[in-house]
Protein: EKC/KEOPS complex subunit BUD32
Organism: Aspergillus mulundensis
Amino acid sequence: MPTAHPPPFSTILSSTPQPSPTDLTPIYQGAEAHLYRTTFLSSTTPAALKIRPSKPYRHPILDRRLTRARILQEARCLQKLVKEGVSVPALLGVDWEPNADNGSSWLVMEWVEGGPVRVQLERWERYLKGVERERGLAMGEGIEKSEEEKVRGLMRRIGGAVGGLHRAGVIHGDLTTSNLMLRPKSAEAAVDEEGEGSPSMEGDIVMIDFGLAMQSAQDEDRAVDLYVLERAFGSSHPRTERFFEEVLVGYKESYKGSVSALKRLEDVRMRGRKRSMIG
Ligand SMILES: Nc1ncnc2c1ncn2[C@@H]1O[C@H](COP(=O)(O)OP(=O)(O)OP(=O)(O)O)[C@@H](O)[C@H]1O
Ligand SMILES: [Mg+2]
């Protein structure tokens, strides 16, 4: 009886679904990663391709090992978080270049509609600046109740997302408003608003960019994650800083272990203040 041999590994690899190379729209080029909008399996399924390019100044073997380790780490993290129901894009594929001269590694994930929270908050700050200038008010004085409620709602959802992440035992490692996406609930709401009015803050928070993430059961790590986010709000969106407590309300609601993490946050803040006093 003939034994059934599996096809050679190289055939399996070359037939694994790959992002469509003819359909790549660059959306972001950083030092560490390049992001493209592409499609996956069908031309109507948008996907995000994240490439970690090889670094020519690094030794090729070391370079390949590092980019591969980092993309794998990020991919494993996404996979685990999707399984646990945390709000992150689903992982669709991951691979790396086996050739030593080109150490690029890549992953493909679900495309998240909408945009980074940063963009929406920057629009909001611009809008408020206009209001303040028009009425001769000091910074932050032009925030009406309805505007405050909108931002508080957004901040609470952000806290809820981070609580879900920590509940799953993962620390993000780089929580900024660029790494939080705001996905509108409906297609109509997704229409890009470029106007000068107050921008919409409706939608779900989806966390991205797990390149620096790690598993941890330490309150200290969770507290530092929150502190990094607090500092990001303070430095990038000064008008939102006084509503940061709302992030912590959302965090408490979604994560049982929040009490000890929040207690630890007090210590981390204290250390941060001391450090900035010393200079
Ligand atoms: N799944 C996605 N869907 C839509 N847009 C995305 C997605 N992932 C990333 N982006 C866009 O690409 C930008 C950069 O992505 P990301 O934050 O992962 O890269 P990075 O900051 O360079 O990563 P790293 O810090 O790991 O080097 C994001 O701010 C976002 O605008
Ligand atoms: Mg990022």
The mean pLDDT is 90. The pocket of magnesium ion (ligand 2) is lined by residues 178-179, 209 (CB under 6 Å). The chain has seven helices and ten strands. The first helix runs from residue 9 to 15.
